[in-house]
Amino acid sequence: MIEVSIDKLILIYFGVTFTFVGLLWGLFYLQKGKAEKILVKNQVKHCEFCHFRYLIDLRKNLTRCPECGLLNDERK
Ligand SMILES: [Zn+2]
Predict the structure, then answer these.
(1) What total of structural domains would you count in the chain?
(2) How far is the CA of 40 from the centre of ligand 1 (A)?
(3) Membrane-spanning regions, if any (predicted)?
(4) Which of 38, 58, 60, 75 has the fewest CB atoms found within 10 Å of its own CB?
């Protein structure tokens, strides 16, 4: 049987715990970065006709409202 002192056992416990928490934090940080990139490329727009809110792609000048189907000019 492997003999491990209580000091080493505590050290291993905290090492594994902090590594696990660090990995979880890293994964959440990466997910947050992806969400911010999506929000930078897109913007919330109110339809001029029915006032429905939807996400638009900033690279397009004209977008179609998903609710009423009319075209909205995004340069305004
Ligand atoms: Zn609309």
Answers:
(1) 1
(2) 23
(3) 12-30
(4) 75
